[in-house]
Amino acid sequence: MAKELFIETKKHRRRFNILIFALVIMAEMLFIYGNYHGKTDPSEGWMFLFYNIPIMNCMFFSVAIAGFASRLMDIEHKGEMLKCLYTFSTSRRIFFAKYLYGAISIFVLVIMQCGSILACCRMLGFDSSFPTRYLVIHGVTTFIICMTLLSVQLPLAFFFRNQALSISIGIMGSFISFFSLFLPESFVQKLIPWAAFVTSGFTRLDWNPDTRVSRFYVENPDCFPVIICICWIILSTVLTLILLEKSGVEESEKRVSCKRNDKIILHRLPVEFLKLKGSPAWIAFFIVPSISAAIGTINYLANISILKDGWYSLWTQHTLFLCYFFMPVIIGIFAGCIWRVEHCGTNMNLLMTHQKPAITVLGKYAATCFITSISLIWVMALYLISGSIIHMDGKLPSGLLLWLVMGIVGSWTICAFQVLVSLVIKNFVLPIILAFLGGFAGLACIAKGIPYLTPFSLFDLAMNQRELGAADVSLFAFSSVIFITVFIMAAILYLSHVDVRTNE
């Protein structure tokens, strides 16, 4: 095992995997620093951190670990590297060497977060002399939960060549767990490993609706979610051992027997759609909005005494978090998938011999915009269906159609950005993480009153004008055209002037 672990560390030299975790920690610190309004008593500030950081871990760490697991396997899935590895080692040794390397990396991640808590105490003027046992409890539980997520994500990345599946499951797990936090606490919530960051916490918030005063307090941590996570690790390990015993290395392309046909059949579908034939990437555009609609409807019914604006309130529950965080990530996954074929082997060299750079970029951009637009129409359809099922009273919002049209245009700006990023960055995971961070950047721009500064904030503003204020249509259209033109022209110029290489 020591030899395999040494080989694993050599393979990941200069790949800056730890940089992913460092960026996540920095993003969390900036989010806390930017949203701290100075109302918390400095002596209770450390409780403020231990309350908010697990909630952000639920969002950030889930996606980061899914991306990290994908990076652990993307070297082996290029070409037939697993065949070469199996000539001098076993599948178990290779897998568990990666698992051990991941465990070491996650330990570094937990150390960095514990250090960031102390750093936040200094930056915000909080009392840093809180009991050390709380920092140890946080570190141990966070490590166990992260190892649980790695135990789920790494087998998916190992057994499936298409890394979109592993990334999608990580994002969906984060999505479901984050929405579950807005529902009443239940036994089922504690079974979700992605939600264990919060359900195993020891800091609680007591908010008085009459005085609008918040008070943090500490209670004994709930060990049940941690025990469930350990059970998840054991179950995942057993299933992985069974699959490793039965699985073999297959060719990346399988020949399908078919009858001989002398006629030449020309496909009428655009070439980018032919490349995505059989890929599960587009499924997320329909599954994630469906989950968002179901959870949003349940949350609306559970808080109907507070959400009194009828159809308006239902729209916010369906689209708020979907537009802020998950739709940009789904677009990032799709853009990565449509460029992944060209980034493998010498496919880009072959493509550039018979197709102009402008045609290549515009074709991929058109495919991304098309599937995104269909997904947003699906969001609208789910909204209307959900309202009919729960017998919503009143009239539909008067600006609903305008919101949808502007939302589609706003999503096209994100598509242009992700097409450019996925072209420049040949790694599949990093553009998705940039899309995830872009969602938070858009949220920050909206909070600061500058929603026209980024493509992500444009999309958020378009879809949530009822909550964020009516958008200036002319300024919105001007900003969208500028963003789309700049990103697409940059992609075309990059592809025209940069030499095509077959390695990262």
Verbal overview:
- It contains 19 helices and two strands.
- It has helices spanning 2-11, 17-35, 45-73, 81-85, 91-124, 132-159, 163-180, 196-199, 224-246, 271-275, 284-302, 311-343, 347-352, 357-389, 400-424, 429-447, 455-463, 465-468, 473-497, and strands at residues 203-208, 213-218.
- 40% of the residues are buried.
- The model is unreliable at 249-269 (pLDDT under 50).
Map the helices and strands.
Layout: H1 2-11, H2 17-35, H3 45-73, H4 81-85, H5 91-124, H6 132-159, H7 163-180, H8 196-199, E1 203-208, E2 213-218, H9 224-246, H10 271-275, H11 284-302, H12 311-343, H13 347-352, H14 357-389, H15 400-424, H16 429-447, H17 455-463, H18 465-468, H19 473-497
Antiparallel strand pairs: 1-2
Short note summarizing the structure:
With 504 residues, the chain is an all-alpha fold. The chain has helices at 2-11, 17-35, 45-73, 81-85, 91-124, 132-159, 163-180, 196-199, 224-246, 271-275, 284-302, 311-343, 347-352, 357-389, 400-424, 429-447, 455-463, 465-468, 473-497; strands at 203-208, 213-218. The chain has a two-stranded antiparallel sheet with strand order 1-2.
Strand content: under 5%
State the separation between the terminal residues, measured CA to CA.
Answer: 28 Å
Radius of gyration: 24 Å
Strand order of the largest sheet: 1-2
Question: How much is the average pLDDT?
Answer: 79
What is the tally of helical segments?
Answer: 19
Task: Give the overall shape, derived from the CA principal axes.
Answer: globular
Low-confidence stretches: 249-269
Largest sheet: 2 strands, antiparallel
Kindly state the number of beta strands: 2
Q: Assign the structural class, choosing from mainly alpha, mainly beta, alpha/beta, alpha+beta, or little secondary structure.
A: mainly alpha
Helical proportion, percent range: 55-70%
What pattern of helices and strands is seen along the backbone?
Answer: HHHHHHHHEEHHHHHHHHHHH
